[in-house]
Amino acid sequence: MQLIDYSDSFLSVVPAFLALALAIITRRVLLSLGIGVLVGVFMLVGGTPLDAAAQLKSMAVSLIWDGNDWSLGKLKILIFLLLLGIFTSLLTYSGSNQAFADWAKQHIKDQRGAKMLTACLVFVTFIDDYFHSLAVGAIARPVTDKFKVSRAKLAYILDSTAAPMCVLMPVSSWGASIIATLSGLLVTYHITGYTPMGLFVSMSLMNYYALFALLMVFTVAYFSFDIGSMAELERTARESEAGDSTESSHGQGRVYALIIPVLVLIFSTIAAMLYTGAQALDSFSLLGAFENTDVNTSLVFGGVCGVSAVLLCTIGTIAGKDYPHAVFQGMKSMIGAIIILILAWLISIVVSDMHTGEYLSKLVAGNINPALLPAILFLLGSVMAFATGTSWGTFGIMLPIAAAMAVKVDPSLTVPCMSAVMAGAVCGDHCSPISDTTILSSTGAHCNHIDHVTSQLPYALTVAASATVGYLALGFTQSALLGFIVSGIAMFGLILLLKNKQNRPA
């Protein structure tokens, strides 16, 4: 089917920006992405309904069939998400979260230890932000309550270690979806010199917001750096009579039933990544194996192993009649993410066929210094994710645009621009009161949602300002290291400024 060429027309931006505008106005990402896809398809075929239906069918089929053979990478990602939902649900039903919390309360000795435990748990729960916020909230809440850490501080630690860590790790639901998107962008825009995994790692090293958000968390946890409303909430918690945890033990949970399945999931996935990557090498090397690994297959293997470990470790802690319900609830929890991901893949195809990036690049080339692109895309991604409450929807709309613009304007800025989109999506999601991760962090901490949003915002904006300066440095110098250093200096300076202001008598 002959598609209309919009590479020289302002109409090329309509589907992507319609999806963006609707998402901001309605805050309904699924509806907005769906309308963007449909409008783009009708424009490409000239408005004929039958041709539009045929084109939409062709696009959907292309997700699993490349014209000559099955292409199952995206299907494997969806399977992994379902397995992850089942994994999380079974752990919750077994009572293993509370069993670990009861154990931790006996070994933590002070408030700093309680906060550092909460922050450090992300290194074993980074597989998914939902899993992290809910599981770590259940594990750490009784411990932080015992030492009079405010629920707002707990919610902040949960939220600031959820998405920022997940977006940096390939062995996570976020990493898997981003790598899947990148694999398509590499082909669509003929980006050479990178594998999907290699590109993901390079982008993660330039994700200044995520990196410094994690650094800020540990600074806050260790040094009790309290600013804004967080200072008052912490003071109130310290002056309370006692920790007010209302947790009750399930009675059947086992500590090892949490630890072993998580370790099995992580290490089996890493082992599969090394094995599949080694198959493409003449001589094994760790870096080479990770760069050539089959991430999608490895994640499915790890997911199967993780679920199997949960089933074995929770024998006797979950009633037989509850297993089907736990499995169903786990799969159901991932349906929204799966639909967003499918629509994101479809709108990526539409953006490519509409030549949106090619048209925008012509505008940018004549009006905007290309060195400003990383900072501009970071801020744009932040605004969109804040308004819509989703990082994944932002990835779906913005990554193809960023890749197309950078390839046309200055190919050396391709990775910095896509990194800036990733960072901006996490930043906006982190700040947004309607973000699912923000809501789940409040839920996991049993914290008033508005208290969480308002107390977290000063920290998030501090990191965002530092990252913006870093992306300006990255754009002008194309040095990832210099951008990182500049971001660090900016954040250190802002922390000192805010600390001095907080200590100043009213």
From TrEMBL:
Pfam families in the cross-refs: Na_H_antiporter
Na+/H+ antiporter NhaC-like C-terminal domain ranges (all copies): 165-476
Membrane topology, record value: Multi-pass membrane protein
Transmembrane segments: 33-54, 75-96, 116-140, 161-186, 206-225, 255-278, 298-319, 331-351, 371-395, 480-498
Keyword Translocase: no
InterPro entries: Na/H_Antiport_NhaC-like_C (IPR018461)
Gene Ontology cellular component annotations, sorted alphabetically: plasma membrane
Localization, UniProt: Cell membrane
Alphabetically ordered keywords of this record: Cell membrane, Membrane, Transmembrane, Transmembrane helix
Superkingdom of this protein's organism: Bacteria
PANTHER family cross-referenced by the UniProt entry: NA+/H+ ANTIPORTER-RELATED, NA+_H+ ANTIPORTER NHAC-LIKE C-TERMINAL DOMAIN-CONTAINING PROTEIN
Protein name stated in the entry: Na+/H+ antiporter NhaC family protein
Top-level taxonomy: Bacteria, Pseudomonadati, Pseudomonadota, Betaproteobacteria, Neisseriales
